[in-house]
């Protein structure tokens, strides 16, 4: 029962924090510069989430060496995404590089 109350409380707090902003923005016209700036938010958030996981997979110091399979798989996946714009190819090739790198270099 504690878990249900905890999840319910977290949902209520999240809703209470976000709803007023969404309600206000839906009633107000944003200037063009704000709309253009908001287009970069998803890219910035995704970068902020993935870069630390790729560069420092242990949560510590950034590792740039052959033992960091996350880094090289991330680089290859980024290149594939940039060149092909194909999500399935990006995920598939990134996973293949990651597992092969770990087998070859033990990272």
Uncertain ranges:
none
Write the H/E string, N to C.
HHHHH
Count every beta strand, where a strand is a DSSP E run of 2 or more residues. 0
Number of domains: 2
How do you describe this structure in short?
This protein has 5 helices and no strands. The chain is mainly alpha-helical. The protein folds into 2 domains: 1-39, no CATH class; 40-107, no CATH class.
Element layout with pairings:
Elements: H1 2-27, H2 32-38, H3 41-55, H4 69-84, H5 87-105
Helix pairs in contact: 4-5
What would your notes on this structure say?
With 107 residues, the protein is mostly helical. It folds into 2 domains: 1-39, no CATH class; 40-107, no CATH class. It has 5 helices and no strands. The chain has helices spanning 2-27, 32-38, 41-55, 69-84, 87-105. Helix 4 runs antiparallel to helix 5. It is extended and about 55 Å long. The mean pLDDT is 90.
């Amino acid at each position: 029962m504690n878990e249900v109350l905890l999840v319910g409380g977290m949902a209520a707090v999240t809703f209470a924090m976000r709803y007023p902003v969404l309600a206000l923005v839906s009633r107000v016209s944003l200037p063009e510069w704000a709309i253009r700036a908001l287009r970069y938010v998803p890219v910035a958030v995704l970068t902020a989430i993935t870069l630390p996981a790729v560069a420092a997979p242990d949560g510590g110091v950034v590792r740039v060496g052959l033992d960091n399979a996350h880094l090289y798989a991330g680089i290859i996946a980024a290149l594939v995404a940039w060149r092909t714009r194909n999500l399935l190819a990006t995920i598939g090739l990134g996973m293949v590089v990651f597992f092969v790198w770990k087998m070859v270099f033990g990272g």
